[in-house]
Amino acid sequence: MCGIAVILSLEQEQRDRFAFQALKMMNHRGPDSNGTWSDELEVCLGHNRLAILDLSDAGHQPMISSCGQYIMVFNGEIYNHQELRQKYLPNYEFKSTTDTETILELYKILGSEMQTEMLGMWAFAIWDIQKNELFVSRDRYGQKPLYFVQTDTEIAFASEIEPLLVLLDRVNGDTTMISEYLSSGNYGHLREKTFFSEIEQIKPGHFAIVSGSQRSIESNSYWRLPVLSEKKGIKATQKYLDELKEIIKQAVLSQTLADVPIGVTLSGGIDSSVITGILAKYYPEKFSVFTAQTAGSKYDETSYVDAVLNRLGKEKYSLHKIDLNNLMSQEDLDDLLDIQEEPFGDPSIMAHHQLMKLAKETNTKVILGGQGADEIFLGYGHSVNVILAHCIRCFKFKTILDWMINGQLGKNMWARILLAALFPRLEVYLRSKSRNKRKSQVSGYLNNTPNDVKLFPLIDVNQSWEDSIYGVHIPHLVHYDDRNGMSVSTEGRMPFLDHRIIEKLGELKPSEFVKGAKRKSILRLACEEYLPKEVLNRRDKIGFYTPLQAILKSWSLNGNSNNEKELSKYMENPTIISAMNTFRLISYKRWASRYRIKNE
Fold first, then answer.
1. Which residues pair with 5 in a beta bridge?
2. pLDDT tens, position by position, 569-588
3. Which residue from 307, 301, 303, 250 is spatially nearest to 279, judged by alpha carbons?
4. How many CB atoms sit inside 10 A of residue 181's CB?
Protein backbone atom coordinates (compact mmCIF):
# COMPACT_ATOMS: atom_id res chain seq x y z
CA MET A 1 0.00 0.00 0.00
CA CYS A 2 1.44 3.30 -1.05
CA GLY A 3 0.79 6.78 -2.39
CA ILE A 4 1.20 7.76 -6.03
CA ALA A 5 1.28 11.10 -7.84
CA VAL A 6 1.59 11.83 -11.56
CA ILE A 7 1.53 15.09 -13.48
CA LEU A 8 1.57 15.92 -17.18
CA SER A 9 2.71 19.50 -17.73
CA LEU A 10 5.05 21.31 -20.08
CA GLU A 11 6.29 23.47 -17.21
CA GLN A 12 9.16 21.71 -15.44
CA GLU A 13 8.96 23.94 -12.36
CA GLN A 14 5.28 23.08 -11.96
CA ARG A 15 5.98 19.34 -12.32
CA ASP A 16 8.78 19.40 -9.76
CA ARG A 17 6.79 21.49 -7.29
CA PHE A 18 3.72 19.25 -7.56
CA ALA A 19 5.71 16.04 -7.11
CA PHE A 20 7.57 17.42 -4.08
CA GLN A 21 4.40 18.72 -2.40
CA ALA A 22 2.33 15.62 -3.19
CA LEU A 23 4.85 13.19 -1.72
CA LYS A 24 5.27 15.35 1.36
CA MET A 25 1.48 15.52 1.88
CA MET A 26 1.10 11.76 1.43
CA ASN A 27 4.14 10.61 3.37
CA HIS A 28 1.85 8.76 5.81
CA ARG A 29 0.79 6.47 2.95
CA GLY A 30 4.33 5.23 2.49
CA PRO A 31 6.97 6.28 5.02
CA ASP A 32 9.44 3.53 4.09
CA SER A 33 10.82 5.28 0.99
CA ASN A 34 9.90 7.75 -1.72
CA GLY A 35 11.09 8.65 -5.19
CA THR A 36 10.33 10.48 -8.43
CA TRP A 37 11.01 9.98 -12.13
CA SER A 38 10.81 12.71 -14.77
CA ASP A 39 11.54 12.80 -18.48
CA GLU A 40 12.34 16.51 -18.10
CA LEU A 41 9.88 17.26 -20.91
CA GLU A 42 6.28 16.77 -19.77
CA VAL A 43 5.75 14.03 -17.19
CA CYS A 44 6.74 13.34 -13.59
CA LEU A 45 5.81 10.30 -11.51
CA GLY A 46 6.13 10.19 -7.72
CA HIS A 47 5.76 7.42 -5.16
CA ASN A 48 5.62 6.90 -1.38
CA ARG A 49 6.25 3.27 -0.39
CA LEU A 50 4.75 1.23 2.44
CA ALA A 51 6.73 -2.00 2.21
CA ILE A 52 4.50 -5.08 2.57
CA LEU A 53 6.12 -7.49 0.08
CA ASP A 54 9.90 -7.69 -0.30
CA LEU A 55 11.03 -5.16 2.29
CA SER A 56 14.34 -4.58 0.49
CA ASP A 57 15.28 -1.67 -1.76
CA ALA A 58 14.46 -3.87 -4.76
CA GLY A 59 10.85 -2.75 -4.39
CA HIS A 60 11.67 0.97 -4.70
CA GLN A 61 9.47 3.02 -7.03
CA PRO A 62 9.03 4.51 -9.56
CA MET A 63 10.10 1.24 -11.18
CA ILE A 64 11.50 0.98 -14.70
CA SER A 65 10.79 -2.07 -16.87
CA SER A 66 13.64 -4.30 -18.01
CA CYS A 67 13.31 -2.98 -21.57
CA GLY A 68 13.41 0.63 -20.36
CA GLN A 69 10.19 1.59 -22.16
CA TYR A 70 7.80 1.68 -19.19
CA ILE A 71 7.92 3.50 -15.85
CA MET A 72 5.39 2.56 -13.17
CA VAL A 73 4.04 3.78 -9.83
CA PHE A 74 1.80 1.29 -8.08
CA ASN A 75 -0.50 1.32 -5.02
CA GLY A 76 -2.15 -1.88 -3.81
CA GLU A 77 -1.61 -5.63 -3.69
CA ILE A 78 -1.88 -8.29 -6.40
CA TYR A 79 -2.56 -11.50 -4.52
CA ASN A 80 -1.99 -13.84 -7.48
CA HIS A 81 1.17 -12.21 -8.79
CA GLN A 82 3.27 -15.33 -8.17
CA GLU A 83 0.84 -17.38 -10.28
CA LEU A 84 1.00 -14.73 -13.01
CA ARG A 85 4.80 -15.02 -13.00
CA GLN A 86 4.57 -18.77 -13.52
CA LYS A 87 1.92 -18.47 -16.23
CA TYR A 88 3.30 -15.63 -18.35
CA LEU A 89 6.90 -15.03 -17.28
CA PRO A 90 8.36 -18.47 -16.43
CA ASN A 91 11.78 -17.69 -17.89
CA TYR A 92 12.13 -14.11 -16.73
CA GLU A 93 14.74 -13.47 -14.05
CA PHE A 94 13.07 -11.19 -11.53
CA LYS A 95 15.08 -8.79 -9.42
CA SER A 96 12.55 -8.70 -6.54
CA THR A 97 9.59 -10.59 -5.10
CA THR A 98 7.28 -7.57 -5.43
CA ASP A 99 3.97 -7.58 -7.27
CA THR A 100 4.95 -4.25 -8.81
CA GLU A 101 7.70 -5.84 -10.87
CA THR A 102 5.33 -8.65 -11.89
CA ILE A 103 2.70 -6.24 -13.23
CA LEU A 104 5.24 -3.99 -14.92
CA GLU A 105 6.76 -6.88 -16.87
CA LEU A 106 3.32 -8.36 -17.56
CA TYR A 107 2.21 -5.09 -19.13
CA LYS A 108 4.86 -5.57 -21.83
CA ILE A 109 3.17 -8.84 -22.81
CA LEU A 110 -0.56 -8.26 -22.30
CA GLY A 111 -1.02 -4.50 -22.19
CA SER A 112 -4.45 -3.51 -20.80
CA GLU A 113 -5.65 -7.13 -21.04
CA MET A 114 -3.61 -7.94 -17.95
CA GLN A 115 -6.26 -6.29 -15.75
CA THR A 116 -8.66 -9.19 -16.23
CA GLU A 117 -5.93 -11.57 -15.01
CA MET A 118 -5.17 -9.60 -11.86
CA LEU A 119 -6.60 -10.59 -8.48
CA GLY A 120 -6.38 -7.85 -5.88
CA MET A 121 -6.74 -4.13 -5.27
CA TRP A 122 -4.82 -1.45 -7.08
CA ALA A 123 -4.38 1.99 -8.54
CA PHE A 124 -1.38 2.48 -10.78
CA ALA A 125 0.08 4.54 -13.60
CA ILE A 126 2.46 3.40 -16.35
CA TRP A 127 4.23 5.89 -18.60
CA ASP A 128 5.12 4.63 -22.08
CA ILE A 129 8.23 6.50 -23.21
CA GLN A 130 7.89 5.49 -26.86
CA LYS A 131 4.17 6.22 -27.25
CA ASN A 132 4.27 9.31 -25.05
CA GLU A 133 1.22 7.92 -23.27
CA LEU A 134 0.03 7.37 -19.71
CA PHE A 135 -1.98 4.28 -18.75
CA VAL A 136 -3.87 4.45 -15.44
CA SER A 137 -6.02 1.74 -13.85
CA ARG A 138 -8.18 1.18 -10.78
CA ASP A 139 -9.33 -2.12 -9.27
CA ARG A 140 -12.79 -3.60 -9.77
CA TYR A 141 -14.36 -2.25 -6.57
CA GLY A 142 -12.30 0.92 -6.23
CA GLN A 143 -10.55 -0.22 -3.06
CA LYS A 144 -7.56 1.92 -3.98
CA PRO A 145 -8.26 5.58 -4.79
CA LEU A 146 -7.14 7.43 -7.90
CA TYR A 147 -8.17 11.07 -8.22
CA PHE A 148 -7.42 13.52 -11.01
CA VAL A 149 -7.74 17.17 -11.93
CA GLN A 150 -7.51 18.91 -15.30
CA THR A 151 -6.55 22.54 -15.69
CA ASP A 152 -5.62 24.63 -18.72
CA THR A 153 -1.97 23.63 -18.40
CA GLU A 154 -1.82 20.21 -16.74
CA ILE A 155 -3.45 16.91 -15.84
CA ALA A 156 -2.53 15.40 -12.50
CA PHE A 157 -3.37 12.18 -10.63
CA ALA A 158 -2.94 11.31 -6.96
CA SER A 159 -3.96 8.80 -4.29
CA GLU A 160 -5.49 11.61 -2.24
CA ILE A 161 -7.36 14.82 -3.01
CA GLU A 162 -5.34 17.44 -1.18
CA PRO A 163 -2.23 17.32 -3.42
CA LEU A 164 -4.47 18.14 -6.39
CA LEU A 165 -6.06 21.14 -4.69
CA VAL A 166 -2.76 23.03 -4.78
CA LEU A 167 -3.12 23.19 -8.57
CA LEU A 168 -6.39 25.12 -8.30
CA ASP A 169 -6.87 28.86 -7.86
CA ARG A 170 -10.29 28.31 -6.32
CA VAL A 171 -11.84 25.35 -4.50
CA ASN A 172 -15.56 24.79 -5.03
CA GLY A 173 -17.85 22.22 -3.45
CA ASP A 174 -19.93 19.97 -5.68
CA THR A 175 -23.46 21.11 -4.87
CA THR A 176 -25.13 17.84 -5.87
CA MET A 177 -22.85 15.80 -3.63
CA ILE A 178 -23.34 18.19 -0.72
CA SER A 179 -27.12 18.32 -1.16
CA GLU A 180 -27.38 14.53 -1.34
CA TYR A 181 -25.23 14.16 1.76
CA LEU A 182 -27.18 16.64 3.86
CA SER A 183 -30.67 15.60 2.75
CA SER A 184 -30.32 11.83 2.41
CA GLY A 185 -27.05 10.90 4.08
CA ASN A 186 -25.70 9.47 0.81
CA TYR A 187 -22.15 10.13 -0.27
CA GLY A 188 -19.58 8.55 -2.54
CA HIS A 189 -22.45 7.30 -4.72
CA LEU A 190 -22.14 9.54 -7.78
CA ARG A 191 -19.44 7.47 -9.46
CA GLU A 192 -16.63 9.78 -10.63
CA LYS A 193 -17.79 12.78 -8.57
CA THR A 194 -16.27 13.96 -5.28
CA PHE A 195 -17.28 16.69 -2.82
CA PHE A 196 -14.93 18.98 -4.76
CA SER A 197 -16.40 20.08 -8.08
CA GLU A 198 -13.01 20.24 -9.82
CA ILE A 199 -11.73 16.87 -8.58
CA GLU A 200 -12.87 13.61 -10.17
CA GLN A 201 -11.82 9.99 -9.80
CA ILE A 202 -11.20 7.06 -12.09
CA LYS A 203 -14.24 4.84 -11.67
CA PRO A 204 -13.87 1.34 -10.22
CA GLY A 205 -13.21 -1.32 -12.83
CA HIS A 206 -11.98 1.27 -15.32
CA PHE A 207 -8.75 2.33 -16.98
CA ALA A 208 -7.84 5.45 -18.87
CA ILE A 209 -5.26 6.32 -21.50
CA VAL A 210 -3.94 9.85 -21.38
CA SER A 211 -2.19 11.14 -24.46
CA GLY A 212 0.79 13.31 -23.69
CA SER A 213 0.13 15.47 -26.73
CA GLN A 214 -3.67 15.70 -26.65
CA ARG A 215 -4.08 16.01 -22.86
CA SER A 216 -7.31 14.00 -23.05
CA ILE A 217 -8.67 11.14 -20.96
CA GLU A 218 -10.31 8.13 -22.56
CA SER A 219 -11.97 5.97 -19.92
CA ASN A 220 -12.96 2.34 -20.52
CA SER A 221 -14.45 -0.46 -18.44
CA TYR A 222 -12.53 -3.74 -18.19
CA TRP A 223 -14.94 -5.56 -15.82
CA ARG A 224 -18.66 -5.61 -15.12
CA LEU A 225 -20.84 -7.13 -12.45
CA PRO A 226 -22.54 -10.43 -13.31
CA VAL A 227 -26.26 -10.36 -14.09
CA LEU A 228 -28.70 -12.29 -11.91
CA SER A 229 -31.56 -14.08 -13.63
CA GLU A 230 -34.47 -16.06 -12.20
CA LYS A 231 -34.84 -17.97 -15.47
CA LYS A 232 -31.18 -18.71 -16.21
CA GLY A 233 -29.89 -18.82 -12.63
CA ILE A 234 -29.33 -21.99 -10.64
CA LYS A 235 -30.26 -23.11 -7.14
CA ALA A 236 -27.78 -23.20 -4.27
CA THR A 237 -27.25 -26.96 -4.15
CA GLN A 238 -24.79 -28.50 -1.72
CA LYS A 239 -22.29 -28.84 -4.58
CA TYR A 240 -22.64 -25.13 -5.32
CA LEU A 241 -22.25 -24.21 -1.63
CA ASP A 242 -19.09 -26.32 -1.36
CA GLU A 243 -17.63 -24.55 -4.40
CA LEU A 244 -18.52 -21.13 -2.98
CA LYS A 245 -17.03 -22.07 0.38
CA GLU A 246 -13.74 -22.98 -1.28
CA ILE A 247 -13.65 -19.67 -3.18
CA ILE A 248 -14.26 -17.72 0.05
CA LYS A 249 -11.52 -19.67 1.79
CA GLN A 250 -9.08 -18.98 -1.04
CA ALA A 251 -10.06 -15.30 -1.02
CA VAL A 252 -9.20 -14.99 2.67
CA LEU A 253 -5.97 -16.96 2.51
CA SER A 254 -4.74 -15.16 -0.63
CA GLN A 255 -4.99 -11.89 1.28
CA THR A 256 -2.62 -13.10 3.98
CA LEU A 257 0.19 -12.53 1.45
CA ALA A 258 2.62 -10.30 3.37
CA ASP A 259 6.12 -10.12 4.78
CA VAL A 260 4.79 -8.28 7.86
CA PRO A 261 2.40 -9.19 10.74
CA ILE A 262 -1.34 -9.39 9.91
CA GLY A 263 -4.54 -9.01 11.91
CA VAL A 264 -8.34 -9.00 11.57
CA THR A 265 -11.14 -6.76 12.82
CA LEU A 266 -13.88 -8.74 14.59
CA SER A 267 -17.28 -7.24 15.38
CA GLY A 268 -19.13 -10.43 16.30
CA GLY A 269 -21.18 -10.31 13.10
CA ILE A 270 -21.27 -13.07 10.50
CA ASP A 271 -18.87 -11.48 7.99
CA SER A 272 -15.88 -10.79 10.21
CA SER A 273 -16.49 -14.04 12.10
CA VAL A 274 -16.18 -16.05 8.86
CA ILE A 275 -12.83 -14.43 8.07
CA THR A 276 -11.58 -14.99 11.61
CA GLY A 277 -12.70 -18.61 11.51
CA ILE A 278 -10.91 -19.29 8.23
CA LEU A 279 -7.70 -17.69 9.50
CA ALA A 280 -7.85 -19.75 12.69
CA LYS A 281 -8.22 -23.00 10.77
CA TYR A 282 -5.76 -22.47 7.91
CA TYR A 283 -3.36 -19.60 8.64
CA PRO A 284 -0.23 -21.13 10.18
CA GLU A 285 0.90 -18.14 12.23
CA LYS A 286 -0.49 -16.27 15.22
CA PHE A 287 -2.53 -13.20 14.25
CA SER A 288 -3.99 -10.17 16.01
CA VAL A 289 -7.72 -9.66 16.59
CA PHE A 290 -9.05 -6.11 16.99
CA THR A 291 -12.53 -5.35 18.31
CA ALA A 292 -14.40 -2.20 19.40
CA GLN A 293 -17.51 -2.45 21.57
CA THR A 294 -19.87 -0.22 23.54
CA ALA A 295 -19.62 -2.19 26.78
CA GLY A 296 -22.83 -2.52 28.78
CA SER A 297 -25.14 -1.13 26.08
CA LYS A 298 -27.83 -3.03 24.18
CA TYR A 299 -25.55 -2.85 21.16
CA ASP A 300 -22.66 -4.58 22.90
CA GLU A 301 -21.59 -7.60 20.79
CA THR A 302 -18.91 -8.84 23.18
CA SER A 303 -20.77 -12.12 23.78
CA TYR A 304 -20.61 -12.92 20.06
CA VAL A 305 -16.94 -11.97 19.86
CA ASP A 306 -16.25 -14.27 22.82
CA ALA A 307 -18.18 -17.09 21.14
CA VAL A 308 -15.93 -16.78 18.07
CA LEU A 309 -12.71 -16.56 20.07
CA ASN A 310 -13.61 -19.51 22.30
CA ARG A 311 -13.50 -21.74 19.22
CA LEU A 312 -10.06 -20.58 18.13
CA GLY A 313 -7.72 -21.52 20.93
CA LYS A 314 -5.70 -18.80 22.66
CA GLU A 315 -2.51 -19.86 20.94
CA LYS A 316 -3.96 -18.70 17.59
CA TYR A 317 -4.48 -15.01 18.34
CA SER A 318 -3.71 -11.97 20.47
CA LEU A 319 -6.74 -9.82 21.37
CA HIS A 320 -6.84 -6.00 21.36
CA LYS A 321 -9.96 -4.10 22.48
CA ILE A 322 -11.35 -0.57 22.38
CA ASP A 323 -14.21 0.66 24.58
CA LEU A 324 -16.39 3.01 22.53
CA ASN A 325 -17.87 4.50 25.69
CA ASN A 326 -14.75 6.65 25.75
CA LEU A 327 -16.46 9.35 23.74
CA MET A 328 -14.78 11.09 20.86
CA SER A 329 -14.26 14.85 20.93
CA GLN A 330 -14.98 17.42 18.29
CA GLU A 331 -11.22 17.68 17.83
CA ASP A 332 -11.29 14.00 16.82
CA LEU A 333 -13.85 14.94 14.16
CA ASP A 334 -11.54 17.63 12.80
CA ASP A 335 -8.67 15.17 12.67
CA LEU A 336 -10.83 12.65 10.79
CA LEU A 337 -11.97 15.27 8.29
CA ASP A 338 -8.31 15.94 7.53
CA ILE A 339 -7.77 12.21 7.03
CA GLN A 340 -10.97 11.49 5.07
CA GLU A 341 -10.78 14.76 3.07
CA GLU A 342 -14.57 14.70 2.65
CA PRO A 343 -17.58 14.77 5.03
CA PHE A 344 -18.67 11.37 6.32
CA GLY A 345 -21.87 9.85 7.64
CA ASP A 346 -21.45 8.90 11.30
CA PRO A 347 -18.89 8.38 14.11
CA SER A 348 -18.40 4.69 13.26
CA ILE A 349 -15.66 5.89 10.93
CA MET A 350 -14.01 7.59 13.90
CA ALA A 351 -14.21 4.30 15.82
CA HIS A 352 -12.68 2.42 12.88
CA HIS A 353 -9.81 4.88 12.91
CA GLN A 354 -9.20 4.09 16.58
CA LEU A 355 -8.84 0.42 15.63
CA MET A 356 -6.34 1.29 12.91
CA LYS A 357 -4.34 3.34 15.42
CA LEU A 358 -4.37 0.36 17.76
CA ALA A 359 -3.09 -1.84 14.93
CA LYS A 360 -0.27 0.63 14.37
CA GLU A 361 0.64 0.52 18.06
CA THR A 362 0.88 -3.28 17.93
CA ASN A 363 3.00 -3.17 14.76
CA THR A 364 0.29 -4.90 12.70
CA LYS A 365 0.72 -3.57 9.16
CA VAL A 366 -2.03 -5.57 7.41
CA ILE A 367 -5.67 -5.77 8.61
CA LEU A 368 -8.36 -8.00 7.09
CA GLY A 369 -11.99 -6.91 7.51
CA GLY A 370 -15.47 -8.18 6.69
CA GLN A 371 -16.63 -5.15 4.71
CA GLY A 372 -18.35 -5.89 1.42
CA ALA A 373 -20.25 -9.05 2.40
CA ASP A 374 -23.56 -7.26 2.99
CA GLU A 375 -23.32 -5.76 -0.49
CA ILE A 376 -22.36 -8.79 -2.54
CA PHE A 377 -24.65 -11.20 -0.63
CA LEU A 378 -27.54 -8.69 -0.79
CA GLY A 379 -27.77 -8.71 2.98
CA TYR A 380 -29.06 -5.22 3.76
CA GLY A 381 -32.72 -4.83 4.64
CA HIS A 382 -33.53 -2.79 1.54
CA SER A 383 -31.82 -5.41 -0.66
CA VAL A 384 -33.97 -8.13 0.91
CA ASN A 385 -37.05 -6.00 0.25
CA VAL A 386 -36.14 -5.73 -3.43
CA ILE A 387 -35.71 -9.50 -3.70
CA LEU A 388 -39.02 -10.14 -1.95
CA ALA A 389 -40.80 -7.73 -4.30
CA HIS A 390 -39.12 -9.57 -7.16
CA CYS A 391 -40.35 -12.91 -5.70
CA ILE A 392 -43.94 -11.62 -5.66
CA ARG A 393 -43.63 -10.68 -9.31
CA CYS A 394 -42.20 -14.13 -10.09
CA PHE A 395 -44.90 -15.94 -8.07
CA LYS A 396 -42.38 -17.34 -5.56
CA PHE A 397 -45.10 -17.57 -2.94
CA LYS A 398 -43.37 -20.25 -0.86
CA THR A 399 -40.49 -17.83 -0.25
CA ILE A 400 -42.91 -15.01 0.57
CA LEU A 401 -44.87 -17.19 3.01
CA ASP A 402 -41.65 -18.26 4.74
CA TRP A 403 -40.66 -14.63 5.23
CA MET A 404 -44.13 -13.66 6.42
CA ILE A 405 -43.95 -16.35 9.12
CA ASN A 406 -40.27 -16.23 10.08
CA GLY A 407 -38.78 -13.09 8.55
CA GLN A 408 -39.65 -10.64 11.33
CA LEU A 409 -40.69 -7.89 8.94
CA GLY A 410 -43.29 -5.41 10.16
CA LYS A 411 -46.61 -4.49 8.52
CA ASN A 412 -45.25 -1.20 7.17
CA MET A 413 -42.34 -2.99 5.50
CA TRP A 414 -44.66 -5.51 3.87
CA ALA A 415 -46.86 -2.67 2.64
CA ARG A 416 -43.83 -1.08 0.96
CA ILE A 417 -42.76 -4.41 -0.56
CA LEU A 418 -46.26 -4.98 -1.95
CA LEU A 419 -46.41 -1.45 -3.32
CA ALA A 420 -43.06 -1.95 -5.09
CA ALA A 421 -44.17 -5.30 -6.51
CA LEU A 422 -47.66 -4.35 -7.67
CA PHE A 423 -47.32 -0.64 -8.46
CA PRO A 424 -43.60 -0.01 -9.17
CA ARG A 425 -44.09 3.35 -10.89
CA LEU A 426 -46.19 4.67 -8.01
CA GLU A 427 -43.56 3.50 -5.50
CA VAL A 428 -40.82 5.33 -7.45
CA TYR A 429 -42.99 8.46 -7.58
CA LEU A 430 -43.62 8.42 -3.82
CA ARG A 431 -39.96 7.78 -3.05
CA SER A 432 -38.93 10.61 -5.36
CA LYS A 433 -41.42 12.92 -3.69
CA SER A 434 -40.01 12.04 -0.27
CA ARG A 435 -36.45 12.69 -1.46
CA ASN A 436 -37.42 16.04 -2.92
CA LYS A 437 -39.10 17.02 0.34
CA ARG A 438 -35.92 16.25 2.30
CA LYS A 439 -33.86 18.08 -0.27
CA SER A 440 -36.08 21.18 -0.02
CA GLN A 441 -35.25 21.37 3.69
CA VAL A 442 -31.57 21.89 2.91
CA SER A 443 -30.95 25.58 3.37
CA GLY A 444 -29.47 28.13 1.02
CA TYR A 445 -28.14 27.60 -2.48
CA LEU A 446 -28.05 23.80 -2.11
CA ASN A 447 -31.81 23.19 -2.41
CA ASN A 448 -31.72 24.37 -6.05
CA THR A 449 -29.16 21.85 -7.23
CA PRO A 450 -30.01 19.65 -10.23
CA ASN A 451 -31.18 16.11 -9.50
CA ASP A 452 -28.44 13.83 -10.86
CA VAL A 453 -29.73 10.76 -9.02
CA LYS A 454 -32.02 8.42 -10.96
CA LEU A 455 -34.31 6.19 -8.92
CA PHE A 456 -34.98 2.64 -10.07
CA PRO A 457 -38.02 0.45 -9.33
CA LEU A 458 -37.56 -1.66 -6.21
CA ILE A 459 -38.20 -4.84 -8.19
CA ASP A 460 -34.95 -4.61 -10.16
CA VAL A 461 -32.54 -6.85 -8.27
CA ASN A 462 -29.61 -6.24 -10.59
CA GLN A 463 -29.97 -2.47 -10.39
CA SER A 464 -30.17 -2.72 -6.60
CA TRP A 465 -27.01 -4.87 -6.58
CA GLU A 466 -25.16 -2.40 -8.78
CA ASP A 467 -26.37 0.57 -6.76
CA SER A 468 -25.15 -1.01 -3.53
CA ILE A 469 -21.75 -1.91 -4.97
CA TYR A 470 -21.03 1.18 -7.07
CA GLY A 471 -23.39 3.63 -5.38
CA VAL A 472 -24.56 4.00 -1.81
CA HIS A 473 -22.43 1.46 0.06
CA ILE A 474 -19.08 0.13 -1.10
CA PRO A 475 -17.62 3.46 -2.35
CA HIS A 476 -17.68 5.02 1.11
CA LEU A 477 -16.64 1.76 2.80
CA VAL A 478 -13.47 1.48 0.73
CA HIS A 479 -12.87 5.21 1.08
CA TYR A 480 -12.81 5.29 4.87
CA ASP A 481 -10.95 1.98 5.10
CA ASP A 482 -8.18 3.26 2.84
CA ARG A 483 -7.90 6.66 4.53
CA ASN A 484 -8.03 5.40 8.10
CA GLY A 485 -5.47 2.70 7.45
CA MET A 486 -3.13 4.83 5.40
CA SER A 487 -3.20 7.66 7.94
CA VAL A 488 -1.25 5.34 10.25
CA SER A 489 0.62 3.45 7.50
CA THR A 490 -1.54 0.33 7.82
CA GLU A 491 -3.01 -1.65 4.93
CA GLY A 492 -6.68 -2.66 5.01
CA ARG A 493 -7.83 -5.68 3.00
CA MET A 494 -11.34 -6.95 2.24
CA PRO A 495 -11.50 -10.63 1.27
CA PHE A 496 -15.20 -10.49 0.36
CA LEU A 497 -14.28 -8.07 -2.45
CA ASP A 498 -12.40 -10.82 -4.24
CA HIS A 499 -14.19 -10.70 -7.61
CA ARG A 500 -14.30 -14.49 -7.83
CA ILE A 501 -16.91 -14.53 -5.06
CA ILE A 502 -19.40 -12.22 -6.77
CA GLU A 503 -18.88 -13.96 -10.10
CA LYS A 504 -19.84 -17.23 -8.40
CA LEU A 505 -22.86 -15.57 -6.80
CA GLY A 506 -23.88 -14.35 -10.26
CA GLU A 507 -24.79 -17.94 -11.16
CA LEU A 508 -27.71 -17.96 -8.68
CA LYS A 509 -31.38 -17.17 -9.03
CA PRO A 510 -32.13 -13.93 -7.10
CA SER A 511 -34.64 -15.76 -4.89
CA GLU A 512 -31.84 -18.01 -3.59
CA PHE A 513 -30.34 -15.07 -1.67
CA VAL A 514 -33.26 -15.05 0.79
CA LYS A 515 -33.62 -18.79 1.44
CA GLY A 516 -34.71 -19.74 4.95
CA ALA A 517 -36.07 -16.26 5.73
CA LYS A 518 -32.62 -15.08 6.80
CA ARG A 519 -30.35 -12.39 5.46
CA LYS A 520 -27.15 -13.63 3.82
CA SER A 521 -28.49 -17.18 3.95
CA ILE A 522 -26.08 -18.26 1.19
CA LEU A 523 -23.07 -17.12 3.23
CA ARG A 524 -24.43 -18.81 6.36
CA LEU A 525 -25.00 -22.11 4.52
CA ALA A 526 -21.63 -22.08 2.77
CA CYS A 527 -19.54 -21.08 5.79
CA GLU A 528 -21.42 -22.72 8.66
CA GLU A 529 -18.25 -24.62 9.55
CA TYR A 530 -16.45 -21.44 10.60
CA LEU A 531 -19.21 -19.97 12.78
CA PRO A 532 -20.34 -20.67 16.36
CA LYS A 533 -24.08 -21.31 16.60
CA GLU A 534 -24.62 -18.02 18.45
CA VAL A 535 -23.35 -16.09 15.40
CA LEU A 536 -24.72 -18.46 12.74
CA ASN A 537 -28.29 -18.02 13.99
CA ARG A 538 -28.18 -14.25 14.54
CA ARG A 539 -31.00 -12.29 12.93
CA ASP A 540 -30.10 -8.83 14.16
CA LYS A 541 -27.63 -6.58 12.42
CA ILE A 542 -25.94 -3.93 14.53
CA GLY A 543 -23.13 -2.84 12.27
CA PHE A 544 -20.23 -0.82 13.61
CA TYR A 545 -22.29 0.87 16.33
CA THR A 546 -21.06 4.01 18.02
CA PRO A 547 -23.07 5.96 20.65
CA LEU A 548 -23.84 8.95 18.44
CA GLN A 549 -26.51 10.47 20.67
CA ALA A 550 -24.24 10.29 23.73
CA ILE A 551 -21.42 11.86 21.70
CA LEU A 552 -23.58 14.82 20.64
CA LYS A 553 -24.84 15.29 24.19
CA SER A 554 -21.26 15.34 25.43
CA TRP A 555 -20.31 17.88 22.78
CA SER A 556 -23.27 20.06 23.79
CA LEU A 557 -22.39 19.95 27.50
CA ASN A 558 -18.73 20.70 26.83
CA GLY A 559 -19.70 23.68 24.68
CA ASN A 560 -18.44 24.72 21.25
CA SER A 561 -19.16 28.09 19.73
CA ASN A 562 -18.75 26.84 16.16
CA ASN A 563 -21.55 24.29 16.46
CA GLU A 564 -23.63 25.73 19.31
CA LYS A 565 -26.66 26.38 17.09
CA GLU A 566 -26.76 22.83 15.66
CA LEU A 567 -26.21 21.16 19.04
CA SER A 568 -28.83 23.29 20.80
CA LYS A 569 -31.39 22.40 18.13
CA TYR A 570 -30.56 18.72 18.50
CA MET A 571 -30.97 18.80 22.29
CA GLU A 572 -34.52 20.10 21.78
CA ASN A 573 -35.36 16.88 19.87
CA PRO A 574 -32.72 14.23 20.68
CA THR A 575 -33.85 11.38 18.41
CA ILE A 576 -31.55 9.12 16.42
CA ILE A 577 -32.73 10.68 13.14
CA SER A 578 -32.08 14.21 14.36
CA ALA A 579 -28.73 13.00 15.70
CA MET A 580 -27.70 11.75 12.26
CA ASN A 581 -28.83 14.98 10.61
CA THR A 582 -26.97 17.06 13.20
CA PHE A 583 -23.77 15.06 12.83
CA ARG A 584 -23.83 15.42 9.04
CA LEU A 585 -24.43 19.15 9.25
CA ILE A 586 -21.57 19.63 11.73
CA SER A 587 -19.31 17.43 9.61
CA TYR A 588 -20.15 19.40 6.46
CA LYS A 589 -19.65 22.81 8.09
CA ARG A 590 -16.27 21.87 9.53
CA TRP A 591 -15.19 20.39 6.19
CA ALA A 592 -16.28 23.51 4.27
CA SER A 593 -14.37 25.68 6.72
CA ARG A 594 -11.31 23.44 6.60
CA TYR A 595 -11.07 23.62 2.79
CA ARG A 596 -12.40 27.16 2.44
CA ILE A 597 -15.11 26.16 0.02
CA LYS A 598 -15.94 29.24 -2.05
CA ASN A 599 -19.40 28.62 -3.51
CA GLU A 600 -21.49 28.93 -0.34
1. 46, 158
2. 777 778 878 888 888 888 99
3. 250
4. 26
Q: What pTM, to 2 d.p., does this model score?
A: 0.93
Closest to 174 measured CA to CA, from 342, 336, 339:
342
- Is 557's pLDDT higher than 80? no
DSSP 232: T
Contact assessment for residue 251 and residue 275, using Cβ atoms and an 8 Å cutoff = no
Are 44 and 16 a contacting pair, CB within 8 Å? yes
Q: What angle do CA 35, 38, 43 make, to 5 degrees?
A: 120
* DSSP H or E segment with residue 276: helix 270-282
Q: How far apart are CA 122 and CA 559, in angstroms?
A: 43
Query: Domains in the chain and their CATH numbers?
Result: 2-161+199-221 (3.60.20.10), 238-321+338-376+473-536 (3.40.50.620), 547-600 (no CATH)
Query: How far apart, in whole angstroms, are the C-alpha atoms of residue 240 and residue 102?
Result: 33
| Cβ neighbours, 10 Å, residue 405 | 9
Task: Name the helix (H) or strand (E) containing 338.
Answer: helix 330-340
Q: What are the beta bridge partners of residue 41?
A: none
Around Cβ 191, how many Cβ atoms within 10 Å? 15
Asked if residues 30 and 158 have their Cβ atoms less than 8 Å apart, the reply is no
Over residues 401-455, the pLDDT tens digits come to: 999 999 889 999 999 999 999 999 999 999 888 888 877 766 555 655 656 677 8
The angle subtended at Cα 581 by Cα 577 and Cα 585, nearest 5°, is: 170
Name which of 223, 229, 274 is nearest 470 in CA terms. 223
479: helix, strand or coil: helix
User: pLDDT digit string (tens) for 133-176?
Assistant: 999 999 999 999 999 999 988 999 999 999 999 999 999 999 88
Classify 470 as helix, strand or coil.
helix
Which amino acid is present at 224? R
Report yes or no: 101 and 40 within 8 Å, Cβ to Cβ. no
